[in-house]
Amino acid sequence: MSRLFGSVRSRATLGATLVVAVALVAAGIAVVLSLRSNLTAEAGTEAERSARAVASELAARTAYDRLSGLDGDDGPVQIVDGDGRLVAATEDLQRISGTATAEVRPRPDPVGREDEDSEDADDADRSDGSDDADRGDGTGDSAEESESGKAGGSGGSGESLAPGEIARETTFRNGSATIDGDAEDYRFAAVEVRTPDRGRLTVHAGAPLAAEHSAVDTALTAMLIGLPLLLGVVAGVTWGVTGRALRPVEGIRREMAAITASEDLARRVPEPGTHDEIARLARTTNATLAALETSVERQRRFVADASHELRSPIASLRTQLEVAAAHPELLDLDGAVEDTVRLQHLAADLLLLARMDAGGRPAGSRVDLAALAREEAAGRPGVTVDAEPAEVTGSRGQLGRLLANLLDNARRHARERVTVTVRREGTWAVLGVADDGDGVAEADRERIFERFVRLDAARSRDDGGAGLGLAIARDVAVRHGGTLMAGAAPAGGALFELRVPLAAEA
């Protein structure tokens, strides 16, 4: 399992599928809730319409047995008086819940109730026919207020209704009912009406919720069937798309594995023709391989050149020792000492280059290039110094070695004079070493800084070195954040110019 989900492809597929699943479930829940709410509202509107139709008939003094809404075609209907007593209900109603009462059979009026209602109706008629008399003694208003208070105190809506008026407020509840053996869920609407002859009544009418249940069930079924199928499609598409997108990465991985196994740094990974991150990765990988190949080739060439340079003084020294062993009178002691010194210098140069190649950073001490120039020029014939103070940060030993190598190189090629200058240019310290020799051809001004490179005029090992002095000088300059360039001196010879950042002011 861990291996299966250890790939980018599988994790991307799983993540995309989970995100889509969460989004679809949330959207499905929202759709189902919205659908249920809308259908329930429609059922409530239908129930309210039926309740108000019955209430209108009651307001028109229609008898209970003549009400059109009690036939059961439009749903269950209950009519409850102000005392909560069922006075009329739908025919064949067997069970009901969700209304003011669970009774399904109307109860007869108590003794004297019908007479009381009749007297109230007559009083209302007389009140309507003799307004002036009622205004005179106030009995009409008292009777109306008494009936209104009685109706309002029975737990109704609390609205003050005139005879024949239907309340504006409608209350809704969910419930169920059984009519002639058919049980269904209903949305009930309750509407109050004040009748002229029967006081305050409440009409409960229900509209079936079968359409709402059916639609919700259909939506849930569609979701349960469609969601896995859609997730399967999403997973398949994501798997294919990520596989296609990561195919170049797999090609890069295989090629890198082949390069590692064969140790052939000349090979390169395939670069896709796109302009995306994978193409940039391939180009960066090839650039890294090219730099690594150059570095390895440089190390191989360095080792080969070092072996060649070491072989000559060692062979010469061995020959002299063998001759001395056989013929002591023929021993060239000066030559043996010279070869030993040359061998010592070459070993020191190789060791310094190895340390710098290993990435050793120079020390962070402050060095005055003017003082260093005067110190290195002391005792060297024909060398003059023109320097102003310029402090830099770095290794005094490495900077001294750089200046000594430049002075040795200039002395080998100068006719009479070598000039050392130090000046400040902005944030840079500039050190120049110029000679009055033949100079360096423009085509060779970069090549002379390569390791073990000696120009034709300086190929004699007796006059020149091993070709490491200028290479060491440039490496020291680069590691101090500066540059070392070769050019033409004003006197016609060679000019080597070092630029390094000035030390920060304390």
Write a concise synopsis of the structure shown:
With 506 residues, the protein is α+β, with helices and mostly antiparallel strands. 51% of the residues lie in helices and 18% in strands.
Description:
The protein is α+β, with helices and mostly antiparallel strands. It has three domains: 32-214, Beta-Lactamase; 265-360, Helix Hairpins (Orthogonal Bundle); 362-501, Histidine kinase-like ATPase, C-terminal domain (Heat Shock Protein 90, 2-Layer Sandwich). 51% of the residues lie in helices and 18% in strands. The protein is built from ten helices and 13 strands. The strands form three sheets. Strands 2-1-6-5-4-3 form a six-stranded antiparallel sheet. Strands 8-10-11-13-12 form a five-stranded mixed sheet. The protein is rod-shaped and about 155 Å long.
Uncertain runs are 111-155, 457-463
Number of helices: 10
β-strand percent reads 15-25%
Q: Give me the side-by-side strand order of the main sheet.
A: 2-1-6-5-4-3
Which percent range fits the helix content?
Answer: 40-55%
Q: Tell me, what is the CATH class of the largest domain?
A: Alpha Beta
Question: Which CATH-level-2 architecture of the largest domain?
Answer: 2-Layer Sandwich
Assembly state of the chains shown? single chain
